[in-house]
Amino acid sequence: MVGIAALACIAMTSCGNMGQVLGAMTNGTGVVNAITSVIGLDKVKQQNLIATWKYAGPGCAFTSENLLAKAGGEVAAVQIEEKLLPYYQQVGLSASNTYITFNEDGTFSSKIAGTPFNGKYTFDEATQKISLKGLLLSMNCYAKKEANGISILFEAKKLLTVLQTMSAMSGNKDLQTIGDLSKNYDGVRVGFDMKR
């Protein structure tokens, strides 16, 4: 899941086409999501996190309004998500094989492209950081409130590591083909939009 997002970030460097920019601005989602493209503007509460969340598509957010503005606003976020989608499809991500359940007792169970990952989690409402600790793997991600659910997002540079680990556990060769992330996107978090 991480490597796919990384490819989207790399691909974004070649997204200067005016047609793509206009398309992203007028496709409806760009206008609706413009205010919510920054992590932390509308926070997820602990009690709202407890549920089963299923994959609904690629997710992307910027860590500050300043970085969002520098990247070209919501247009940049929409372009990243559009670039991620074919890679997510190649790996075979779907609502039936990619989901996470957060339980009240601090445990979670999940699958990423069909590979199980279970353990304990902690959630910091102030930073929206979710720490996931499993038997063989630990990772941090961030929640972002969306109009129709939440996004589970990773630092762009960490996403590749997560994907490579999941790839080794599952034997999925598609995940192993994803290259390194661009260092120009330190302020971008990528991952999954999730719905109940």
TrEMBL record:
Residues 22-196 form the DUF4923 domain. InterPro entries: DUF4923. Residues 1-19 form the signal peptide. It holds the Pfam family DUF4923. It comes from the Bacteria. The keyword Signal applies. Keywords: Signal. The keyword Signal applies. This is DUF4923 domain-containing protein. It comes from Xylanibacter ruminicola (strain ATCC 19189 / DSM 19721 / CIP 105475 / JCM 8958 / 23) (Prevotella ruminicola). The lineage of its organism: Bacteria, Pseudomonadati, Bacteroidota, Bacteroidia, Bacteroidales.
